Amino acid sequence: MTTSAPTKTHACTSRSTAAPAVKPSATDFASDQEIRWCPGCGDFSILAQMKKVLPEIGVRPENMVFVSGIGCSSRFPYYLNTYGVHGIHGRAPAIATGLKTVRPELQVWVITGDGDALSIGGNHLMHALRRNVDIKILLFNNRIYGLTKGQYSPTSLPGHITRSTPQGSVDAPLHPLSIALGSEASFVARSVDTHTAHLGGILRRAAAHRGSAFVEIYQNCNIYNDGAFEYAKNQSTRNDCLVEVEHGQPLLFGAKRDRGIRLDGLRLETVAITDDSKSEDLLVHDERAPDPILAMMLARMRYPAMPEAIGVLRAVERPVFDELVNEQVDAELRHDGAGDLEALFRAGDTWTIE
């Protein structure tokens, strides 16, 4: 595991993340490292939006940490002038949990991919979300293992031919948002790498959320799985293939916003909007609903049967893990005082081996 520090000199004596007197700029967050992704990779767009958003958050670079696992997306910490940890495969949520718990004043981001997070890292991701650790998790989903040269991933579609599935994948894919919602994540959202304005807005919402914020980003790997989300990226098709959910607004989609989604019993269906009476039947999005059932239904909509949802599907308040842990520690310190590590080592039964 390697740890990188900001490439510029910053004072790191204060533990406060209060808004600085001088607002940082995008250049303050850009490192001096050469960006080494394949030309045309969707990661470039995500990095560009992150650099635009970070100065608006009000946290200095030295009070921010990016933690990653293994994969193309995991190069992310090198390209930002913040502290960063390039961890081991799938363990970024565990590293971030420990870091946020002992240094709660830091803002901690996790950068991961569909292979890193949902295969070897699935257990760590699930528990970070259920604990509601105050970290921001960005999952770049390109439905392929890119860094290791094109093997199928946990999100690859059935029948997908890769180097590791030459006859086509027979696995049922995992759906990242379903995993997040099933793990009781308090903030769940989805965006697309090339929808820059939308992606920037989602990053801002995630940064402001108190608790675990999980964001799936459809990301194109133009080398090993080019066009996996072309329907969601192409200007001529995206309006028919995606529905942008907004809190308190009816679910409308289409180039002319002339189609909508309504609840018919226990299933969602699309309807044509021909008059005002039809729009009254549409499902109105509630990201703050305490029960995630409707959010789960939206997360599982799949094109071409249904448009796929982008935006914030769930944003609720729950007790935050790192705050609860530190409250317990503080209570014990008030009750028993500071511990003596040397005395603890020598407590109980001891023996000497000669």
Task: Tag the structure with descriptive keywords.
9-stranded mixed sheet, 2 domains, 3-stranded antiparallel sheet, Rossmann fold, alpha/beta, 12 strands, globular, 354 residues
Radius of gyration: 22 Å
Described by strand count, sense and barrel closure, the largest sheet is: 9 strands, mixed
Number of helices: 12
Domains (count): 2
Low-confidence stretches: 7-16
- Give the CATH architecture of the largest domain: 3-Layer(aba) Sandwich
Number of separate strands: 12
Derived structural class: alpha/beta
How is this structure best described in words?
This protein has 354 residues and is an alpha/beta fold. It has two domains: 2-7 and 19-249 and 287-328, Rossmann fold, CATH 3.40.50.970; 252-284, no CATH class. It contains twelve helices and twelve strands. It has helices at residues 43-57, 92-102, 114-120, 122-131, 176-182, 196-208, 230-233, 238-241, 276-279, 293-299, 321-336, 341-345, and strands at 2-4, 64-68, 83-86, 107-113, 135-141, 187-192, 213-218, 242-245, 252-253, 259-264, 267-272, 308-315. Helix 1 crosses helix 6, helix 2 crosses helix 11 (321-336) and helix 3 (114-120) crosses helix 4 (122-131). The longest helix has 16 residues, at 321-336.
